[in-house]
Design brief:
The chain contains three helices and five strands. It has 140 residues and is α+β, with helices and mostly antiparallel strands. β4 and β5 form a beta hairpin. The protein binds zinc ion (2 copies). One zinc ion binds next to loops.
Length: 140
C-alpha cells in the first residue's frame, strides 16, 4: 500500500518544487519589468567612452542603459560590460558623472570619503546642493 503511494508523493513534491521556482523567476522578472517601465524614457544619463583615443562623451536614455544592464549583466559577478561606443564602435562606454557646473566628466566617487558626485575639477556636488536646499526648507 505504502509502496504504491510513495512515487505519487514524490511526484507531487517535485511538481510543487518546480512550480515554486517558476513563480519566483516570474515574479523577479516582472518586478524588474516594472522598475524599467517606471523609468521616464525621456530622462537622460551621461556615458563616456574609456577608449583613450576616443573619450566620446554623450547622453543616452536611462531606460536604454537600464535595459542594456539587465540584458548584459554577468549573473555571477554582477558586472555590466561596456556599451558599444557610437563614435569608435568599441565596447568601452560606461555610465559617468558630469558636473553641472563646469561640465567635467568623472567617475562616481572620484573624491574619497565625500559625496560620490563631487566634481574633482571644481568641487561642486549636486547631491550636496540638494541636501543643503532641503535643510534650508526644513529650518524655515
Ligand atoms: Zn569611443
Ligand atoms: Zn565641476
Amino acid at each position: 500500500m505504502e509502496d504504491k503511494r510513495k512515487p505519487i508523493m514524490i511526484a507531487i513534491i517535485v511538481v510543487c518544487f518546480v512550480l515554486a521556482i517558476a513563480i519566483t523567476i516570474m515574479t523577479r522578472t516582472s518586478e524588474e519589468e516594472e522598475i524599467l517601465d517606471a523609468i521616464d524614457p525621456t530622462e537622460m544619463t551621461w556615458v563616456k567612452c574609456r577608449n583613450p583615443n576616443c573619450e566620446a562623451l554623450y547622453e543616452i536614455s536611462i531606460k536604454e542603459h537600464a535595459i542594456f544592464a539587465r540584458e548584459n549583466r554577468d549573473p555571477e559577478t554582477g558586472i555590466v560590460p561596456g556599451m558599444v561606443c557610437k563614435e569608435c564602435g568599441d565596447e568601452t562606454v560606461y555610465g559617468t558623472e558630469k558636473c553641472d557646473k563646469c561640465g567635467a566628466a568623472f567617475e562616481r566617487g572620484s573624491v574619497p570619503e565625500d559625496f560620490t558626485d563631487r566634481c574633482p575639477e571644481c568641487g561642486y556636488s549636486a547631491e550636496e546642493e540638494k541636501r543643503k536646499a532641503s535643510r534650508r526648507r526644513r529650518s524655515r
